Structures are given as structure tokens and as C-alpha cells.
């Protein structure tokens, strides 16, 4: 069994120092992780810093009215539960707080058992929202995935033929290749061409989930399995029953979870965390890695028996630089998708396509997708030209006909430039910039924070987003 997950994180926003101290102490005694904030300013920044599961918000705060802070928090993260606490409770105030998105409204003085129960209800409510979103994403991923187009390169055609042959098999598949080559797209195609195509396709990025929560995320848990497990929760294997589960970057899977995954692969059995019984699931497993998984086996961080169970069938996705003939078709299909999203009529002219084909694309399909998204947002007219590509993708550096001397940009730099250009286009409005770039507002803030950490300057939210 994995270690218990972290205790629920609470951000207590209260200007009364003595009350703040008492509440924080009592909540910590009740096994909450508590951070505190004393004013109505910089609350969104405190949320970004502490990443709470719930916010306790006093309405009467110095610096900014609590009701305005509530609105800013809802704009920052609509799924973050905020419990409003005030010593001046009226029906009108309560109604306004709930209208602004508060999870609950409590009037001081607040009984500690009531406060604790309210916090746990808020945390559970947020967890249910995340579960629902996770399942909705699993059902909708095929519609939003990177586009698939018939390959023009020999390497791409061989890959397509192999995927078509393996789709009808039921054995596990290991997909290898550099980051950004489209390993998830291969997994989706395996699912779409299989007899399971009408059933769920569920994704887990094994390196994106806290190590202590991976087992629960995969197999679920029973009520009382660990602190905070106030109700039974199904896992991704349950959500994928009858369909396919895609384990991205499976090499990052913690060693203590690997035996449970081995049993799921070998026998089709899972055991929820905290349960004494196993249950059968019908799931095909497709795993992917950009690492040398055989080397990780040799170094002892990945089980050899699990490796062989996952790699019954293997697919290697070649990098985009080895199939430059596919760049044009991919770019056109990606631009058509961006045009559909934005409602604009967008096409490439031949000079733009030629410029894109000359680039080595070290970030592979993901880098190309990033570049096309930027062009879809920033190109002035309906026809994207070579000048647009030079300005918005290659930062004004003219691409040469020699691939070996072509200037390249790291994917992180491309992201930074795209975000900066979108913010400029929308006069600093982060909400509109995030929508235009096709990313979540929280993701935009994370990228901005990462870009400014070195300068010690944290971005400040604008009034509109």
C-alpha cells in the first residue's frame, strides 16, 4: 500500500491575528495543513503559492473587500472551494457570497466541529468535480487530440501500417520515441482501430501525479483507506473498463506501485487501496516512454517482469526530423483545427510551408503544434505567409535552405514567445490570451510564474483575468 496522501491543504484568510492563530492551531490539530494570509490583497498569489484544497475567507479584510476577493478567486480557479466566514452575517450577504461562487457561508463564532465538517465536505466536493472532469476528458480526448493525417514519408507510412496491424490484438503495447513525437496519438489510433473503440480511452501521465497518490489514481481506494479518504473513489482502471488505458511516461512509475500494475497486466485484477479484495477489469494497456526503459530495468528502478509484460508488442515513433515530408500535411491539418477553434478562415501559402519544412523541429510534433497555434493567433491575415512564420515562429530569424544551419528554438522558448505575443495582442488580458492559446488560465499563470522566477518577479493578475 502506498503512503497516505497529504492532509487537506487549507488557506485561512483572516485579519484578526488572535482568531487566525487559534483557528490555524485547531485545524492543524484536526490534521489539516494550514497556511495563513492576513489581508485582502495578494490572495490569488497566496493560492498559487500554497495550492490549497479549500480557502477559508473572511469577508471584512483590509486592502480589499472579501466579496471582491471571492470573485477574483473564482476567476482564477472556479473549481477551488471557498468557504466564507464572517461575523456580520445577513441573508443578503450570504446570498451574494453564494452567487459569487462560495461553497458555503458560516457566521462567526464558528463551532470547530462544524468548520471541520464543512472543510471536509468542500474537499470531497472538489474531488468529485475533478473525478467528473477526468471522466469527461477521457470521453472527449479523441475530439481534442493532436490531429491525425495520412503520412507522406516512408517512415510515417510504415508506422501507420504497424499500428493498423497491432490494433486488433489484445496484448499490451509499448510505444517509444522522443518527447513530442506523438506517442499518445499512436495510442489513440490503436484504440480507435480496435474492437474497443466505442469504450473509454483513459490517460494517466505517470510523472504528473504525486508519488503517494499514483496507486489510488490507478486503482481507486475504499473509504477510510487513509487520512482524508472519506468516501470510496474509483480509479482510472475502473473508468477504462472495456476500453484502453494509456500510461504515458510509464518509466516514471514509482517502484512500490509496479507490482500492483504487474498484477493488473498479467491477471486483469486490481485491488483498490485499503481493500482486502481484488476485482476484475477488462482493460487493454498501452504504455509510452521517451526513456530507455531497458536501461532503467538494468539499473533496478523498473521491474524486468513488468517491462516484458508491457512490451509484448512495441511501436517506435520516429522523430519529425526523420520524416520531413510529413511536416506540410501536419501543419495544414493543425492550422485547419485552429481555424475551426477561432472561427477564422486560415490557410498557408507555399512559402510558409516551405519555411516550416526547412526547420529540424527538435520538439517534434508538439513543437510544430505549438508553432501553428501561435500562427493561428498572431497571423494578421487569412493567409499565413513565410513572413508570418519568420516573425512569430523563428523570432525574425530567416530560415535557410540548409537544415544543418537552420536556427532552432527550444519548446519552452516557443511557449514563452507565444504567451508574450498573445498577452500583447489582448492588452495584457490573461483570460483572453489563455483562450486564444487553447490553454487553461491556471496553465498560463504557471508558465508566467516559471518564466519570472529567475527575476524574482511574480506576475500580477489583471482585472479581466
Written overview of the protein:
- With 465 residues, the chain is of the alpha/beta class.
- It has three domains: 9-124, Response regulator (Rossmann fold); 145-318, Rossmann fold (3-Layer(aba) Sandwich), CATH 3.40.50.300; 321-452, Helicase, Ruva Protein, domain 3 (Orthogonal Bundle).
- It has 19 helices and 14 strands.
- It has helices spanning 17-29, 43-50, 66-76, 91-99, 112-144, 154-167, 183-192, 214-219, 236-239, 258-267, 293-298, 304-310, 327-342, 350-358, 364-378, 386-392, 411-425, 430-437, 441-452, and strands at residues 9-13, 33-37, 54-58, 82-86, 104-107, 173-176, 201-205, 244-248, 269-270, 279-280, 284-289, 313-316, 347-348, 383-384.
- It has a five-stranded parallel sheet, with helices on both faces.
- Helix 1 links the parallel strand 1 (9-13) and strand 2.
- Helix 13 packs across helix 14, helix 13 packs across helix 15 and helix 18 crosses helix 19 (441-452).
- The longest helix is centred in the N-terminal third of the chain and has 33 residues, at 112-144.
- The relative contact order is 0.09.
- The model is unreliable at 1-5, 137-146, 396-408 and 454-465 (pLDDT under 50).
Main β sheet profile: 5 strands, parallel
Assigned CATH superfamily of the largest domain:
P-loop containing nucleotide triphosphate hydrolases
The total of beta strands comes to 14
**Oligomer description:** single chain
Q: What is the number of domains? A: 3
The coarse overall form would be flat
Q: Which strand order do you get reading across the main beta sheet?
A: 2-1-3-4-5
Mean pLDDT: 84
Beta content comes to 5-15%
CATH architecture of the largest domain, please?
3-Layer(aba) Sandwich
Main CATH class of the largest domain:
Alpha Beta
Structural class: alpha/beta
Total helical segments: 19
Radius of gyration: 25 Å
What is the CATH third-level topology name of the largest domain?
Answer: Rossmann fold
Q: What is the helical fraction, as a range of percent?
A: 40-55%
**Low-confidence runs:** 1-5, 137-146, 396-408, 454-465
Gap between N and C termini, in Å?
A: 42 Å
Amino acid at each position: 500500500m502506498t503512503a497516505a496522501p497529504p492532509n487537506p491543504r487549507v488557506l485561512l484568510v483572516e485579519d484578526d491575528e488572535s482568531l487566525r492563530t487559534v483557528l490555524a492551531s485547531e485545524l492543524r490539530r484536526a490534521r489539516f495543513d494550514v497556511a495563513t494570509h492576513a489581508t485582502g490583497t495578494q490572495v490569488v498569489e497566496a493560492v498559487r503559492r500554497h495550492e490549497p484544497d479549500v480557502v477559508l475567507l473572511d469577508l471584512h479584510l483590509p486592502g480589499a473587500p472579501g466579496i471582491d476577493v471571492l470573485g477574483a478567486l473564482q476567476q482564477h480557479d472556479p473549481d477551488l472551494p471557498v468557504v466564507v466566514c464572517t461575523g456580520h452575517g445577513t441573508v443578503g450577504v450570504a446570498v451574494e457570497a453564494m452567487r459569487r461562487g462560495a461553497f458555503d457561508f458560516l457566521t462567526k463564532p464558528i463551532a470547530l466541529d462544524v468548520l471541520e465538517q464543512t472543510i471536509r465536505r468542500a474537499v470531497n466536493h472538489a474531488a468529485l468535480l475533478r473525478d467528473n472532469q477526468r471522466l469527461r476528458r477521457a470521453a472527449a480526448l479523441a475530439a481534442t487530440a493532436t490531429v491525425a493525417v495520412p503520412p507522406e514519408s516512408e517512415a510515417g507510412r510504415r508506422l501507420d501500417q504497424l499500428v493498423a496491424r497491432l490494433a486488433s490484438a489484445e496484448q499490451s503495447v509499448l510505444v517509444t520515441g522522443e518527447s513530442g513525437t506523438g506517442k499518445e496519438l499512436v495510442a489513440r489510433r490503436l484504440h480507435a482501430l480496435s474492437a474497443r473503440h466505442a469504450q473509454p480511452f483513459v490517460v494517466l501521465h505517470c510523472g504528473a501525479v504525486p508519488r503517494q497518490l499514483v496507486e489510488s489514481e490507478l486503482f481507486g481506494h475504499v473509504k477510510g483507506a487513509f487520512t482524508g479518504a472519506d468516501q470510496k473513489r474509483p480509479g482510472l482502471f475502473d473508468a477504462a473498463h472495456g476500453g484502453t488505458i494509456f500510461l504515458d511516461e510509464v518509466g516514471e512509475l514509482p517502484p512500490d506501485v509496479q507490482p500492483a500494475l504487474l498484477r493488473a497486466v498479467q491477471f486483469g485484477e486490481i485491488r483498490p487501496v485499503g481493500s482486502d479484495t481484488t476485482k476484475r477489469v477488462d482493460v487493454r494497456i498501452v504504455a509510452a516512454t521517451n526513456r530507455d526503459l531497458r536501461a532503467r530495468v538494468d539499473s533496478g528502478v523498473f521491474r524486468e517482469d513488468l517491462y516484458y509484460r508491457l512490451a509484448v508488442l512495441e511501436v517506435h515513433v520516429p522523430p519529425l526530423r526523420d520524416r520531413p515530408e510529413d511536416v506540410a500535411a501536419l501543419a495544414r491539418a493543425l492550422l485547419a483545427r485552429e481555424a475551426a477553434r477561432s472561427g477564422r478562415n486560415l490557410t498557408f501559402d507555399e512559402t510558409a510551408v516551405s519555411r516550416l519544412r526547412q526547420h529540424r523541429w527538435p520538439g517534434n510534433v508538439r513543437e510544430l503544434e505549438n508553432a501553428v497555434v501561435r500562427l493561428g493567433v498572431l497571423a494578421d491575415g487569412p493567409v499565413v505567409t513565410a513572413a508570418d512564420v519568420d516573425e512569430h515562429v523563428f523570432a525574425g530569424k530567416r530560415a535557410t535552405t540548409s537544415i544543418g544551419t537552420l536556427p532552432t528554438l527550444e519548446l519552452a522558448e516557443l511557449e514563452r514567445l507565444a504567451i508574450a505575443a498573445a498577452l500583447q495582442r489582448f492588452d495584457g488580458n490573461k483570460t483572453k490570451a489563455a483562450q486564444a492559446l487553447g490553454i487553461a488560465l491556471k496553465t498560463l499563470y504557471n508558465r508566467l510564474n516559471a518564466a519570472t522566477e529567475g527575476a524574482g518577479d511574480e506576475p500580477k493578475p489583471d482585472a479581466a483575468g
